[in-house]
Specification:
Length: 432
């Protein structure tokens, strides 16, 4: 501990120094008999306690006190005023300007030690609090960094789960896209054939027109009639009436196929987006469900029928990707449960409805259900009843966090083992 004693009387400095040296604390004492030197000494040393005389020439103790307290770095330095004054105004000025205590002169040993020990204790407590504050500040910084790391980890886990889900869906989505692409290819081939026929007929029509308009030779009416008969005969051979009638239907089928592929791709894009929190917009929950069903359509057709019971619900403020991921995860979970029974006749019912200021979605499947002893574990990260390596165990956990943490919603599950499982999530409508 470092102590500064300021007094223009060297005798008082000696007495104060002797008393401090006798105190049971380890300290370094610096004596100063010139108040004008105090500022320099304060800058050069980190003092813990200052003993300061009030009555001094050139610069009195109160002015020195003001000078010290003007620097916030010295706020916690204990300052004890040495004084022979007894008037209340002097004490009032000292305390108003930041003095912590006083010691009467002539200095008495009992009073000196009592007040000096109190100052030492206060200073030690102040240093301890400062150290604790710095430690808490560092811990807070570390916690912020840890929280950021956890958020980054969660984000990457979500993306990993999405990629895993997309990988599982790839074959089914490819099949869904290949179907319309297949008949698009067939239609293009047919249209190519039709175009060749139409080109042949157009050539015949143009030849006829050229003959009629020719000025170099005279065309007999009989020749024109023969040309027309030949054209009609070619129209029959090329089945031109059939071609014209079919073109419209082929184009309509092809347009439907392109639109279907476009919807599937758009659904995948919505699902595969990053899902940052600020990507909020007004969305139709029923449409988001339709997109998820479209992506899963191939698996649904081979495992279960799906029944949609859409209620009249308001549009919701949400991140389309996040809510799509929740729905996709829940439907996939139902499909996997039904598939585990080696069944092809499963049933999944999806219902939407409004409850007070909440939009709700209920997904029910007739799979094997969930045993009561694990029902309270299914939202735990990495929990899975599947074989090791066959599932990440974070799908339901992430879905639960999205609804409950990000949207202040509710996420519940009910199950009757051997009969059915019902997942229900609710979240506020929200406003932009």
């Amino acid at each position: 501990m470092k102590i500064l004693v300021v007094d223009d009387d060297k005798f008082n400095l000696t007495i104060a120094n002797d008393f401090i040296k006798k105190a049971p604390i380890e300290c370094e004492v610096i004596l100063c008999n010139k108040p004008t030197e105090v500022q320099r000494l304060m800058e050069e040393n980190k003092f813990d306690i200052v003993l300061l005389d009030i009555v001094m020439p050139k610069m009195d103790g109160i002015d020195v006190l003001k000078q010290i307290r003007a620097n916030s770095e010295y706020d916690n330095v204990q300052i004890l005023m040495l004084t022979s004054l007894t008037d209340s105004d002097s004490f009032k000025k000292c305390f108003e300007n930041g003095a912590d205590d006083y010691i009467n002169k002539p200095i008495k040993e009992v009073e000196f030690y009592a007040r000096f020990k109190a100052a030492v204790k206060t200073r030690n407590n102040s240093l301890m609090l400062k150290e604790m504050f710095e430690r808490i500040k560092k811990q807070n910084k570390d916690l912020k960094q840890l929280n950021k790391t956890l958020k980054d980890t969660q984000f990457h886990m979500i993306q990993k789960e999405k990629l895993a889900a997309i990988g599982e869906l790839a074959a089914g989505v490819a099949h869904e896209i290949n179907n319309p692409l297949g008949y698009l290819g067939s239609n293009l081939e047919t249209l190519s054939n039709f175009v060749l026929r139409i080109q042949k007929m157009i050539k015949e029509y143009r030849d006829l027109i050229d003959n009629i308009d020719s000025k170099e030779k005279t065309i007999e009416k009989a020749d024109i009639s023969e040309n027309i008969l030949n054209i009609k005969d070619m129209e029959k051979k090329l089945k031109l009436n059939f071609v014209i009638a079919e073109i419209g239907e082929i184009i309509k089928d092809s347009t439907d196929g392109v639109n279907r592929v476009s919807k599937i791709v758009k659904s995948l894009q919505n699902f595969a987006k990053t899902g940052f929190d600020d990507e909020m917009a007004i969305n139709d929950l029923n449409m988001i469900i339709d997109e998820a069903i479209l992506i899963l359509n191939c698996d649904l057709k081979s495992v279960a029928t799906i029944e949609k019971k859409y209620g009249i619900i308001p549009q919701v403020l949400c991140n389309r990707s996040q809510i799509g991921q929740v729905i996709l995860s829940l439907i996939t979970n139902s499909l996997q449960a039904i598939r585990s029974q080696n069944r092809l006749d499963g049933e999944i019912i999806i219902q939407t409805f409004k409850e007070k200021d909440m939009v709700c979605c209920e997904i029910c499947d007739d799979g094997p259900g969930i045993e009561e002893d694990i029902l309270n574990k299914i939202f735990d990260p990495f929990f899975t009843t599947k074989e090791v390596g066959s599932a990440t165990g974070v799908g339901l956990s992430i879905s639960h966090d999205i609804i409950v943490e990000k949207y202040n919603g509710e996420f519940n599950v009910k199950s009757i083992p051997g009969k059915k499982t019902i997942f229900t999530f609710k979240f506020p409508v929200g406003k932009l």
